């Protein structure tokens, strides 16, 4: 679990130990997973973290964030292997559901909005649901397209899949500074 990867460092101020900084083992590996997925990360870095157990399996996920919270990523560790579950950048945001699922939503061009959600089981992605809302300018209406685990499905199946995630909830983690 993450507790063996996160080290809080203290310095002696002459009277008592004072918190100095935090080290996360394999931080460079996590940053690379993020930059491979998000080209817009240049000139920024993760400066704070939180642990949050989204799927309530007793193994919390690691949530990293830039100082202004425009760039964020959520990672899991299972059997010593680190996986990036989801990431956002300044044009997207996280969406959380009462079932423990998490997702990313945001714009994908003019008249396009998407939501990509993963269902967690034992800190791993077990299913993914995706919705694209595309505005048809000629007909002045929104068309929805859905996929489950990468396979396109009907509107009814897609709506049922998203309904199974439960209510959207707000999660405001208590971030701790890394540096």
Structure characterization notes:
- The chain is mainly β.
- Helix content is 11%, strand content 52%.
- The strands form three sheets. A seven-stranded antiparallel β-sheet has the order 12-11-10-9-8-7-13, covered by helices on one side.
- The longest helix is centred in the first third of the chain and has 11 residues.
Supply database-style keywords.
14 strands, 179 residues, five-stranded antiparallel sheet, mainly beta, single chain
Distance between the termini: 22 Å
**What is the tally of helical segments?**
2
Mean pLDDT: 91
Largest sheet: 7 strands, antiparallel
Radius of gyration: 19 Å
> What class would the helix/strand composition place it in?
mainly beta
Strand content: over 45%
How do the helices and strands follow one another from N- to C-terminus?
EEHEEEEEEEEEEHEE
Provide the helix percentage: 10-25%
- The strand order across the widest sheet is 12-11-10-9-8-7-13
Low-confidence stretches: none
Number of strands: 14
Tell the overall outline: elongated
Structure summary:
The protein is mainly β and 179 residues long. The protein has helices at residues 27-37, 155-163; strands at 6-12, 17-24, 46-52, 61-66, 72-78, 81-88, 92-97, 102-107, 112-121, 124-136, 141-148, 151-153, 168-169, 176-177. It is elongated, with a radius of gyration of 19 Å.
